[in-house]
Amino acid sequence: xxxxxxxxxxxxxxxxxxxxxxxxxxxxxxxxxxxxxxxxxxxxxxxxxxxxxxxxxxxxxxxxxxxxxxxxxxxxxxxxxxxxxxxxxxxxxxxxxxxxxxxxxxxxxxxxxxxxxxxxxxxxxxxxxxxxxxxxxxxxxxxxxxxxxxxxxxxxxxxxxxxxxxxxxxxxxxxxxxxxxxxxxxxxxxxxxxxxxxxxxxxxxxxxxxxxxxxxxxxxxxxxxxxxxxxxxxxxxxxxxxxxxxxxxxxxxxxxxxxxxxxxxxxxxxxxxxxxxxxxxxxxxxxxxxxxxxxxxxxxxxxxxxxxxxxxxxxxxxxxxxxxxxxxxxxxxxxxxxxxxxxxxxxxxxxxxxxxxxxxxxxxxxxxxxxxxxxxxxxxxxxxxxxxxxxxxxxxxxxxxxxxxxxxxxxxxxxxxxxxxxxxxxxxxxxxxxxxxxxxxxxxxxxxxxxxxxxxx
Amino acid sequence: xxxxxxxxxxxxxxxxxxxxxxxxxxxxxxxxxxxxxxxxxxxxxxxxxxxxxxxxxxxxxxxxxxxxxxxxxxxxxxxxxxxxxxxxxxxxxxxxxxxxxxxxxxxxxxxxxxxxxxxxxxxxxxxxxxxxxxxxxxxxxxxxxxxxxxxx
Amino acid sequence: xxxxxxxxxxxxxxxxxxxxxxxxxxxxxxxxxxxxxxxxxxxxxxxxxxxxxxxxxxxxxxxxxxxxxxxxxxxxxxxxxxxxxxxxxxxxxxxxxxxxxxxxxxxxxxxxxxxxxxxxxxxxxxxxxxxxxxxxxxxxxxxxxxxxxxxxxxxxxxxxxxxxx
Lengths: 457, 152, 165
Fold this sequence. Notes:
Structural class of chain B: alpha/beta
Helix content of chain B: 25-40%
Order of helices and strands of chain B: HEHEHEHEH
Order of helices and strands of chain C: HEEHEEEEHE
CATH class of chain B: Alpha Beta
CATH class of chain C: Alpha Beta
Radius of gyration of chain B: 16 Å
Oligomer: heterotrimer
Strand order of the largest sheet of chain C: 1-2-5-4-3
Number of domains of chain C: 1
Shape of chain C: globular
Radius of gyration of chain C: 17 Å
Largest sheet of chain C: 5 strands, mixed
Largest interface: A-C, 42 and 36 residues
Distance between the termini of chain C: 53 Å
Strand content of chain C: 25-35%
Shape of chain B: globular
Structural class of chain C: alpha/beta
Strand order of the largest sheet of chain B: 1-2-3-4
CATH topology of chain B: Rossmann fold
Number of domains of chain B: 1
Strand content of chain B: 5-15%
Helix content of chain C: 10-25%
CATH topology of chain C: Beta Polymerase, domain 2
């Protein structure tokens, strides 16, 4: 390559090169104030108009797919949390569904409902963050504060169920980690009331706001055909007028029993994407409310005929070998932190000893349970799906989230491929910003909702 | 002991006190921890109570570098450059276990702790740390700022 | 069209170019030869009864350590197709050897193949003939090797600055 001087590099070629007027190259990122993600866009500007853009990603590549190959099937779950870290629950369940398909097992009814409920709460969190952050980048800081406030209420729900706020590792192959806690429906109702108030406020702040509309309408638009050709799914595709949603097209869990709408818009610009996301949050809340009303099994009521026992005491006794009569003692385990009681465990996990860890009281209380636990945990044993491959798609917050898992019959996945929903829009980002002003790059990038963990994996 | 030494130490304290409550941070947000950083910065936990409410996205205007999230080898030169561009006095907070030690990412792509590249003052472990531990880390940094010999 | 009919149609139309077809857990897969790949992809996209408008995913698998397949072609490039019109999916595969890891590009059929193919080149070292700009996508240019190959150790670091660990 010929050596270029600094001046030649900064001043690109452009049409006016001969007359001394040249296009200017401006690098945006990877650390840029108005971008909540680390990518690098090298733009070529003619005045203020972007004539050419080159998007570079990979700054958060942390070897998700390689890491998954290194451990057992359940060991990959914490890595899936950190793919789309704004809605980690959906990733968990997507990956688990792929392994379950490979194994050819199903999950219990209650577990399906729990997965739906938690996925939708996650989706609301994701949309709240996306709209909040992109509004903040346009100067609407209040919206960001309100949205994060609402997200905090939902995170409290998530924490009640999973024990963690963000990186939850709640999914398990064949089930979920723990049952819903007591009083969850009431707390959800309360959190949704707060969230609805926030959404109402944001609607009044943004939807008819002149500045916001001027910056969003007609900006970053992508035609319907091009959106499909770039395999873009999720809110961006629906904003372009295609009502494709994996939850409706290929229903998984119990989505076919729930009533919800798929909001669409026509224009495919940033404003349409904003409207689609706002409408989707309302639909997600509808889904959760229906699912909570329909979830079988009801709240957990362990019958306390004997003594209620502190779980830590129980575990200590078991470890000391004082297991006599332990199985007969009814106990209350916190469903969040220390596993779940046997009735709850059986309600939410598949009855398959090759796959699902036994409940804690069985592990500590009987030799068969202990052996079962060891067989699943020890290296070289564990979950062993038959040879084959499976692709499962779920509707992530940004679109179709796919997991392609290849098994070679051992206890480690031979290959785990994640089909990241925000990679296609990023690949098409240059088509959205070319021909527009350099300031329009910011709302367009915000509306794509790029999540580094998922994009770069 | 001369009079000057007495005055110096007292002036140091005054400047340390002022500095610790006027932290302008540069959030170098890369990954998951950014979500908890947002939560900490917003109204629920309100980092503004500790005088660190205004993020500055220009390294030249900031004096505390919050490194929030996994640093890959591709990102490492950028981080070093941002650090070099900051003016003295400057401090670095490693936010989250990936920045402390690499965390559970031990592979070809990730840096095993940012202290292999730049000096670090306060480590906040957690994957990601809860807002409470972030605020605890921030207070430890404030103590450190107040106690150190001030250059001015 | 259901999956079995799709596979039968493919076999009927492309004959010996369809090396193998199978169905596993409801997913339908066809392995085609490299020479026929572009024809098959184009037909899948344009045939109205299939109408695969979307290339949902494109990836590769390194089979060098897969029991029973150590001696066969090393890489499999995997195409996941989806049709919005008919709401069906199909998986297509093409097998290539390590010495001759070259697959025709699909960029002109689906523009999204651009980045997917760059990623496969980056991670597996499979090249795509006719790709307009085959650079690394995720790793940096200075990186040597292809990390998702089974013989690349997970912790072999190639830092740009700072020590290796």
